[in-house]
Structures are given as structure tokens and as C-alpha cells.
Amino acid sequence: MIEVLDQRTRFGTWWAKVTLLIDLLSGEIMTTTQIRALRLDDAHKLAPLIAENAQALRRGAPRRPDAYYAERILSDKTAEVLGAFEGDKLVGFAVFFDLPELITGLRIGQMDDIYVHPDHRNKGTGRKMIETLVSEGQNRGWLHLRWLVPGKNTPAVALYEKIAEPDHRKSYLIPIDRIAGD
């Protein structure tokens, strides 16, 4: 807080200090969301968000954070994970892949999952993660970034329709049960 006071009151007025303190107490000063690649040492921060996302999607998935699973994802050779931070707190993540595209010979980005904690939604965090992936895709020479969206997630679909075009493809799924192979 001292740094913020020094920056905001470099002209030294007492009133500016009082105004800043009121802003801080009332929540008027917003924290800046930082987007960066997650590292293995972020697993303990990622685990609770994975559990919350699983609960929201599957209703009945494990309720407790699984640090081992978060470590597996962050150690995966093909998956990459972006994190959205407000200060030191991880408030969202996006899992993506860099894939070859057969027809053009170029590469594409495939976002597998994006999640923002409910307390941090409607603040542009999801959009900022997608914008970061688009920028990364430009750096990597991707043809496009694509992702699959559950149609029932109306608020998310509304955002996606503002920033992307619907794809002409349909998605199909064949469940593969681990037990079936035994």
C-alpha cells in the first residue's frame, strides 16, 4: 500500500492520500489481472480451480482439490496451461494445445478448457485469456484458435459469439471407458 500511496500522491497533497485510502477501502481501485503460463510450482493454486470446474460441469466430480492431477496436467508434454492472476491468486485457467492442421500444413491452437472462478467472472478475465492465446497464436503462426463449447453455458456462449465465428463443424463423442478394455 505504501508503494501505491507514493505513486498516487507524488504531488504530496493530504487530500489525495485520503481519497486513495477511501478508494482502496471501497474497492474502487481494481487489481490488474495478469495472464501467464502456469508452471509446476503453480499446481497447488490450480488444483482447487480444476475441482470447481469439474463440479460445475459434471455435478458430482471430486469436491476436493487434487494437486497430483494438477501436477500431471502442468507436466504434460502436449498440454499448455495459461493462468489468470489477481495479485498472487489464481482466478482462472485455460488449457490449450498447439496442433498440426492437415489441409494447409500450418498449425492451429486448440483450447480444451477455460474456467474463471465465479467471483471473478464478468470482469473480462476469460476474454483476456483468449486474447492472450490469440497473441500467442500469432507468434506461433497458427491458422486459427478453436474450442468446443457446451451449448448450455449461455453466458460463455454470448462472449464467444462476440469475439469468434461459429465453426461449420459438428462435434461427436464416443465414450471410452477404461473398464471396457479390461
Describe this structure in words.
The protein is of the alpha+beta class and 182 residues long. The protein folds into two domains: 1-30, no CATH class; 32-165, 3-Layer(aba) Sandwich (Aminopeptidase), CATH 3.40.630. It is 39% helix and 22% strand. Strands 1-2-3-4-5 form a five-stranded mixed β-sheet, sandwiched between helices. A hairpin with a 6-residue loop joins strand 3 (89-100) and strand 4 (107-116). It is globular, with a radius of gyration of 20 Å. The N and C termini lie far apart (59 Å). Residues 33-182 form the N-acetyltransferase domain. GO terms for molecular function: acyltransferase activity, transferring groups other than amino-acyl groups. It comes from Roseibium aggregatum.
Mean pLDDT: 81
- The tally of beta strands, per DSSP, is 5
Please work out how many helical segments DSSP would assign. 6
Instruction: Classify the beta-strand content into a percent band.
Output: 15-25%
SSE string: HHEHHEEEHEH
Instruction: Give the uncertain stretches in residue-range form.
Output: 1-12, 17-21
The domain tally reads 2
The strands making up the biggest β-sheet line up spatially as 1-2-3-4-5
Radius of gyration: 20 Å
Structural class: alpha+beta
Oligomeric state:
single chain
Named CATH architecture of the largest domain: 3-Layer(aba) Sandwich
Keywords: Acyltransferase, Transferase
Pfam families: Acetyltransf_1
InterPro entries: Acyl_CoA_acyltransferase, Bact_Acetyltransf, GNAT_dom
Organism: Roseibium aggregatum
